[in-house]
Predict the structure.
Amino acid sequence: MKKIACSAIVLFAVLMVSGCNNCERDCCDDSAGAQKSQSISGEREPEKPAQKSSKKTASADEVPEAVKKAFQVKFPSVKIAEWKIKSDKTYEAEFTVNGTEITVIFESSGKWLETESAIDPAEVPKAVNIAAAEHFKGYKVIETQSVERWNERHLIYELHFENAKDLAKAQFSSDGAILRQSSKVKP
C-alpha cells in the first residue's frame, strides 16, 4: 500500500512538472506506428485500421451545414475553429476557449459525438493518478484531458504518457478503472 501511495505522489509530481496539456504530438494516433491496444477487460483487441485518426484539413465550405449548425448550438461563443475531416467521414473541430484547447467531433448529420478538453493535471482524480502510477511505471505524463461522449454518462480522463521508447495513452473512469489503453513505438 505504501508503494502505491508513493507511486501516486511521484506521478502527481510528474504531472505538475510536465504540465503538457497542449501537447503538439499526437501521442498515440492510431494511424502510425506499431500499436498495442487493450479493452477494459484486459484482453487484446485486434489491430485497428488507420481509419479513425487519419485526418485532412477542411475548409469551412467542406463542412456540412448540419455540422456547422450543431457546432454553433453547442459552442455559440466560438467563431474560429480549425476543421478536419477524418477518414471515417466524421468532422473534427479544434479551437481554444479561455486558454483551453478543445477538440469536438460530429457526424456528417450534425450529431455530436465527443468533446476532448485539455485539463490541468491537478484536475485528474486521485484514483486515476494512483492507477496511472501503478500501470505506467517508467512513463512520464505528457498530456491530460477530459473526454465527454454522447453515449457516456460520466466524464472520462485520458492521459498520454511517454518513456524512452514508447508513447502510450489510457482512458480512465473517475474511480481509476482503465477503460482503454494503447501504445506505439516512438517514431
Q: What stands out?
A: Residues 2-18 form the longest helix (17 residues). The longest strand covers residues 140-149. Confidence is low (pLDDT under 50) at residues 1-52.
